[in-house]
């Protein structure tokens, strides 16, 4: 007899950090303009990433800032899903970086993946990404990369990691939908778990791109694609619930610069553009 996952999740509150220049749809009811709090939470999640990634051997100490932050290019342009514990401290996060659905490969973070430099697979990798960007363009949704995954050790055997992953799916729907990409380690079965919630192998010309060794992280990795309309059926209701959750959850942003009406319309058309790239130990979070 198969065991059924309970829908209840442990842990504290989920909040959302919005990029300073992002268009936030009006259906988000709880938007807070608080540059100080936004900065504090961004710094805290960067320190959490730094501590965890350093302990995992995924980065070196000299890749951290003087106050222990792991800053990733694009952090200031990304949405961040932030899990707070019962004391209001950052305990987990993911990063959702939106791109226009006309984005070129050389502007994506995955251009740095070791697979992109492979003589055998690099061209197919670029073709597969281009095909998904084109799918996003035809559907009129964003192309996204999700990454910056981190979860405090005390929560790794809870379902908080699963909640953050599904909340990122929910965010994609709340922002209008997306086709996305992620890199995932095979260590601790992380990529296997991402497949369970809806990740699929990146594919072109009827060929699935293979796992690859990433010398930077010292492990086997996979590139997976996601479609916000197609999570695994068993998680569909959870994604819908988390999409609804975001409409009333705190969305914290900095004070935005004044923008012309035409630019705001451009943001409305282009803001539906998320980003997927999960790394490290999701498996530990849902065991």
Question: Which band does the percent of strand residues land in?
Answer: 15-25%
Tell me the number of helical segments per DSSP (H or I, 4 or more residues long).
7
Average pLDDT score:
84
Radius of gyration: 18 Å
Which homologous superfamily in CATH is the superfamily?
Gcn5-related N-acetyltransferase (GNAT)
Name the shape in a single word: globular
Structural class: alpha+beta
Helix content: 25-40%
Query: What is the succession of H and E elements?
Result: EEHEEHEHEHEEEEEHEHH
Gap between N and C termini: 19 Å
Q: What profile does the largest beta sheet have?
A: 10 strands, mixed
Low-confidence stretches: 1-11, 257-263, 268-287
Return the CATH architecture: 3-Layer(aba) Sandwich
Determine and state the CATH class: Alpha Beta
Instruction: Please count the beta strands (DSSP E, at least 2 residues each).
Output: 12
Number of domains: 1
CATH fold type: Aminopeptidase
Overview of the structural elements:
With 287 residues, the chain is an alpha+beta fold. The chain has a single domain, classed as Aminopeptidase, CATH 3.40.630. Helices cover 31% and strands 22% of the residues. It has helices at residues 35-56, 122-139, 160-174, 190-197, 236-246, 261-270, 282-286, and strands at 14-17, 31-33, 79-84, 90-99, 142-151, 178-185, 200-201, 203-204, 207-208, 212-214, 219-227, 251-253. Strands 1, 2, 3, 4, 5, 6, 7, 10, 11 and 12 form a 10-stranded mixed β-sheet that branches. A hairpin with a 4-residue loop joins strand 10 and strand 11 (219-227). The longest helix is centred in the first third of the chain and has 22 residues, at 35-56. Mean pLDDT is 84; it is low at 1-11, 257-263 and 268-287.
């Amino acid at each position: 007899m198969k065991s059924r996952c309970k829908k209840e999740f442990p842990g504290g509150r989920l909040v959302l950090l919005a990029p300073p220049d992002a268009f936030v749809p009006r259906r988000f009811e709880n938007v807070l303009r608080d540059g100080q709090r936004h900065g504090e939470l961004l710094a805290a999640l960067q320190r959490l990433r730094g501590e965890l990634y350093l302990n995992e051997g995924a980065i070196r100490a000299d890749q951290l800032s003087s106050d222990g932050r792991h800053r990733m290019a694009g952090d200031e342009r990304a949405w961040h899903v932030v899990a707070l514990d019962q004391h209001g401290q950052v305990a987990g996060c993911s990063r959702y970086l939106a791109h226009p659905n006309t984005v070129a490969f050389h502007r994506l973070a995955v251009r740095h993946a070791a697979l992109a430099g492979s003589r055998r697979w690099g061209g197919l990798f670029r073709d597969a990404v281009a095909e998904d960007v084109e799918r996003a363009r035809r559907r009129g949704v964003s192309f996204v990369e999700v990454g910056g995954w981190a979860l405090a050790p005390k929560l790794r055997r809870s379902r908080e990691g699963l909640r953050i992953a599904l909340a990122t799916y929910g965010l994609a729907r709340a922002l209008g939908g997306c086709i996305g990409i992620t890199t995932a380690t095979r260590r601790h079965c992380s990529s296997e778990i991402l497949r369970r919630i809806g990740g699929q192998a990146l594919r072109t010309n009827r060929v699935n791109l293979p796992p690859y060794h990433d010398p930077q992280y010292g492990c086997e990795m996979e590139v997976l694609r996601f479609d916000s309309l197609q999570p695994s059926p068993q998680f569909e209701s959870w994604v819908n619930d988390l999409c609804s959750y975001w409409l009333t959850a705190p969305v914290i942003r900095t004070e935005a610069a004044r923008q012309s009406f035409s630019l705001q319309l451009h943001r409305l058309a282009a803001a539906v553009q998320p980003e997927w790239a999960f790394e490290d130990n999701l498996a530990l979070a849902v065991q």
